[in-house]
Design brief:
Low-confidence stretches: none
CATH topology of the largest domain: Aldehyde Dehydrogenase, Chain A, domain 1
Organism: Sphingobium chungbukense
Protein name: Succinate-semialdehyde dehydrogenase
Number of domains: 2
CATH class of the largest domain: Alpha Beta
Helix content: 25-40%
InterPro entries: Ald_DH/histidinol_DH, Ald_DH_C, Ald_DH_CS_GLU, Ald_DH_N, Aldehyde_DH_dom, Aldehyde_DH_Superfamily
Mean pLDDT: 97
Keywords: Oxidation, Oxidoreductase
Strand order of the largest sheet: 16-17-18-15-14-19-20
Bound molecules: nicotinamide-adenine-dinucleotide
GO molecular function, one term: succinate-semialdehyde dehydrogenase (NAD+) activity
């Protein structure tokens, strides 16, 4: 059977190590959808179709679980050192094709190449980190309080995992799940976002070629993921769900996972506050703000959504932010000079326009941008809106775009209260030269991750995740490995 494929050729003519298979990876083979249906993949910068991928239905979902189940016992029994070697091979294979993968991401996601290169390095790092973790899954041995028994705890692979990823980091969100799953000894089914499946398919093929055995990683894409994922979650062989995406879809999946009491990790939406105190170094704060706001053109769950700036430096901060964001080059991500690429689709532009219009109607002032350009491509310019009033939707809704909403505050206690006035609790940022005060504020901010004098929290070695409606569980670091392990207690009479 011939496999459909897409040849991604870089701007300097490199066609990559292979044509990317665009069918479904089930077991050892790439197969088309039985329905014959395909999903068109758009380039958001040009609104043209790049290629199409096979559109799976529930039958292929079942086949993917069959393949994961068939590979499960052997993979769990594979020596940790061998699993580690394979993961390390995946790291090297990905990094060898960093530029090619970055250009692929820029094409299907729209982000700037510089962001895409950073994403590939971050994504590959999960393979290296979990290669190192795979050989350090240590158990525990304790003397029972009575002294008469021994309590032995062993960490075992939790079982087959369904991994569902979003479009904003199509490589990193996949490897952040696959790498710990494989390190722990689990097999998996990856369901990438329908907007950006090509990157996941390329990563899967890289993994296959790097030695990941058949059935350990299976990939299905679907234009209607609801029924497919629901059926997979009702297959008793599936024991883990790891989802990254919106809180709304996370809630639906949690309900479905409840039927079989499936262990669930949820990396959901965010609404990150960025607090700048009077004593902060303003240039460092602007540097951090540019990363926290403009990495991925604001299409990040950790993106700063609300800038609370102490009154003494508020006007200077706004002026500098306008200057820096105003100097950014907007355009197709694939063009090397671009700093702010295209948004993912027309809906994203409409959402941003709605939030900005609502804030302006309530009294905010547009200091920069604030209007999508006419013409082809899903572009929105870097924008700053100041004096955003309480009650504005942009303060409670993820804008997921290059818009900075700035609000003044008077004292740090008030800033913490404002930061916490959201149902979300993923990332938060604090800029102050008083580290003790920064740490005390970090303790009181309701977020899974707080950065002090930094504009970036993501690190393969750190536990990434949220509180409140931003999610459950952690990805990255040792915590991320434990999400794919079951603690087996063996009671030993002494
Ligand atoms: P989304 O929830 O619409 O989609 C995410 C994934 O879920 C996609 O693969 C999609 O196909 C799938 N999906 C949608 N409906 C489904 C259903 N009924 N059943 C099963 N799967 C379904 O989110 P999105 O628009 O792709 O991504 C943006 C959201 O993701 C934002 O809210 C962002 O904050 C969040 N996000 C969170 C993190 C994090 O680590 N916390 C990271 C990146 C993105």
């Amino acid at each position: 059977m011939t496999t459909e494929s897409f040849t991604c050729t870089t701007t300097d003519g490199h066609a990559g190590p292979f044509a990317i298979p665009t069918d479904l990876l089930i077991g050892e083979v790439w197969v088309p959808a039985t329905s014959g249906k395909r999903i068109d993949i758009l380039n958001p910068a040009t609104e043209t179709v790049l290629t199409s991928v096979a559109d799976a239905s529930s039958a292929e979902g079942r086949a993917a679980v069959d393949a994961a189940a068939a590979a499960s016992a052997a993979w769990a029994a594979t020596a940790p050192r061998k699993r580690a070697d394979i993961l390390l091979a995946c790291f090297h294979a990905m990094m060898a094709e960093q530029e090619w993968l970055a250009q692929l991401i820029a094409l299907e996601n729209g982000k700037a190449l510089s962001d895409a290169r950073g994403e590939v390095a971050y994504a590959a790092e999960f393979f290296r980190w979990y290669a190192e973790e795979a050989v350090r899954i240590n158990g525990e041995l304790a003397v029972s309080p009575s002294g008469a028994n021994r309590i032995m705890v062993q960490y075992q692979p939790i079982g087959i995992a369904l991994l569902i990823t979003p479009w904003n980091f199509p490589a990193a969100m996949a490897t952040r799940k696959i790498a710990p799953a494989l390190a722990a000894g689990c097999t998996c089914i990856l369901k990438p976002a329908e907007e950006t499946p090509l990157t996941a398919l390329a990563v899967a093929e890289i993994m296959r070629r790097a030695g990941v055995p058949a059935g350990v990683v299976n990939v299905v894409n679907a234009s209607d993921p609801g029924p497919l994922c629901n059926d997979i979650l009702h297959d008793p062989r599936v024991r883990k769900l790891s989802f990254t995406g919106s809180t709304e879809v996370g809630r639906i999946l949690l309900r479905q996972a409840a039927d079989q009491v499936i262990s669930s990790s949820m990396e959901l939406g965010g609404n990150a506050p960025f607090l700048v105190l009077d004593d902060a170094n303003i240039d460092e704060a602007i540097e951090g703000a540019m990363i926290a706001k403009m990495r991925n053109a604001g299409e990040a769950c950790t993106a700063a959504n609300r800038f609370y700036v102490q009154r003494g430096i508020h006007d200077a901060f706004v002026a500098k932010l306008v200057e820096r964001m105003g100097a950014m080059k907007i355009g197709p991500g694939i063009e090397g000079a671009t700093q702010c690429g295209a948004m993912i689709n027309r809906r994203a532009i409409e959402k941003i326009e709605h939030l900005v219009a609502d804030a302006v109607r309530r009294g905010a002032q547009v200091k920069l941008g604030g209007k999508a350009p006419a013409g082809v491509g899903f572009f929105y310019p870097p924008s700053v809106i100041a004096n955003v009033q309480p009650g504005s939707e942009i303060l409670t809704t993820e804008v997921f775009g290059p818009v900075a909403a700035v609000i003044p505050f008077d004292d740090p206690g008030e800033a913490v209260a404002l930061a916490n006035a959201t149902e979300y609790g993923l990332a938060a940022y604090v800029y102050t030269d008083d580290l003790k005060r920064g740490l005390q504020m970090a303790e009181r901010i309701e977020a899974g991750m707080v950065a002090i004098n930094r504009g970036l929290v993501s690190d393969a070695a750190a536990p990434f995740g949220g509180v409140k409606q931003s999610g459950l569980g952690r990805e990255g670091g040792h915590h991320g490995l434990l999400e794919y392990c079951e603690a087996k207690y063996i009671a030993v009479s002494w």
